[in-house]
Amino acid sequence: MKFQVDHDYHIHSQLSSCSRHPEQTPARILQYAKDHGLKRICLTDHYWDSAVPGASKWYEPQNFDHIAQFRALPQADGIEFLFGCETDMDKFNTVGIPASRFDDFAFIIVPTTHLHMKGFTISEEDYCVDERVASLWVERFDALLQKDLPFHKLGVAHLTCYLMNKASREAYLHTLDLIPTEEMERLFTKAAALGCGIEINTQFQDSDADRVLRIYRIAKGCGCKFYFGGDAHGPDQFEELLEFGKYAVELLGLTEDDKFHIGV
How far apart are CA 36 and CA 260, in angstroms? Predict the structure, then answer.
């Protein structure tokens, strides 16, 4: 059976500093699920715990007390609304969530491609250098998979995020091209064994679809499981991101057997 995009496990509210959209409330997010027939959604505001040293000035205010303001989420018949988070990994490969907080979240997503945060996730000299960013894609993913994390409820967020190289669209695509297939096969084989989810979260033009989707095709071949995460920061983004997700699923030929189920 074809992969059903009946969920969205990456959604920000107005509590995320990159959102602050006055209408991006839990009630409005739940309405998005109702409007599009989604059965399960997850709130994943940006988060770096106060107990983990090294937060950037941007991350520092986004601690547990801050995001827990929306911990009690509204529910609706036929829709499960989960409380999760999007933590991060700094340039030293430190992840911003301590083990003491694992049980506070139904789902945890970690991006390895937030390489636009100069000085925090990437050094000044490596910023927007195609070859170095491609190497960091491998190094950071590898470091994440070596950590003691609850992989049964963890998603690796937006592995083809354009923020990894903002120099230009072609520089971003060239960076994706530079990531060695054999390294991706090694990492995705390990990810599949650990049981974490791989996020379908990408925007592309038909002319560059093969270059962007290559990563996900390799992940599929290695037995990885996938979930959709739109990464919406405001209500105006919901529909467009959902359509991109459905299109990517179609081009990848994913089935229900390829779906990641939180906690399984």
Answer: 20
